[in-house]
Amino acid sequence: MFSVLQPAPPIVVEVVKQPPAAHDISIDYILTMFATAGVMLLVAAIGGLVAGAIFIGIRRRRDTSRPPSTESSHVTLRI
Q1: Mean of the pLDDT values across residues 35-56?
Q2: pTM for this one?
Q3: Residue 19: its pLDDT value, please?
Q4: How far apart are CA 17 and CA 6, in angstroms?
Q5: What is the mean pLDDT of residues 18-35?
Q6: H-type helices in 1-79, by residue range?
Q7: Is pLDDT at 16 greater than 90 in this prediction?
Q8: DSSP codes joined into one string, 31-52
């Protein structure tokens, strides 16, 4: 009975310095997502402009190399 009444040895707990709180990653992810979408849209726009310029150049070169005809230019669509 006397062994129950005797004080137990103290429990030692080491307190370690906690790391600083990390910032929210979701904002960085959203900004990266919009930046990636913007880059893709820019690349698509530049590619469309280059392709359009090539098609217009081909059409103009083809039209200048064709001999003049009696038809007006408004009729020759040749789609």
Answers
A1: 97
A2: 0.51
A3: 81
A4: 34
A5: 84
A6: 2-5, 25-65
A7: no
A8: HHHHHHHHHHHHHHHHHHHHHH
Q: For residue 69, what are the contacts with CB-CB under 8 A and spacing of at least 6?
A: 76
Secondary structure class of 70 (helix, strand, coil):
coil
Compute the distance between CA of residue 13 and CA of residue 77 in angstroms, rounded to an integer.
Answer: 87
Residue indicated by tokens 């080491």:
14
Token digits for 21?
A: 């709180």
Q: In the predicted model, what is the mean pLDDT of residues 26-50?
A: 95
In angstroms and rounded to an integer, the radius of gyration of the C-alpha atoms of the chain is 38
The residue to which tokens 């040749």 are assigned? 78
Q: Which amino acid is at 34?
A: F
